[in-house]
Amino acid sequence: MTVSVDVTEDVPELVASAAALFAEDAGSRDPHMDLGWPAREGAAYYRGLVQDENALCLLARADGAAAGHLIGRLLPVGSLRPKAVRAALESMRVAAERRREGVGEALVSAFIEWARDRGANELVVQAYAANDGALAFYRAQGFRPFEVTLAREA
Prior knowledge:
The structure is a single chain. It contains 4 helices and 5 strands, in the order E-H-H-E-E-E-H-E-H. Helix content is 37%, strand content 23%. By secondary structure, it is of the alpha+beta class. The chain has a 5-stranded mixed beta sheet with strand order 1-2-3-4-5, with helices on both faces.
């Protein structure tokens, strides 16, 4: 397995992986999510991230095919928590046929190293409360609940 970093040529595969994430994760958990966003706006969004020094775009490959992606970014330091230098794991997916092969761990490990190299002292990730697999995976990577967002219909 290889992990490539910030490669413009990888943008179509990043978009495809993001579209698959939208479909399988948000598609079954969030009735308000715009599942067409990756096809409509993903290419421009990811091209911008590839060139952003405060963003990280990773694409994992195994046997020559895309096996997963991870998008991370440094967050601005806020005035309420000025000592928290945060990096957000914004998006991550491992192809279903590549799960349990270490792809996710390799992506998260690369993200942690990238964030630490940029001075981050706190890493954050969001996952749907109903996505037990993602929550278990992130806990296994050392993430712990910190904030909880509750939602209800208006």
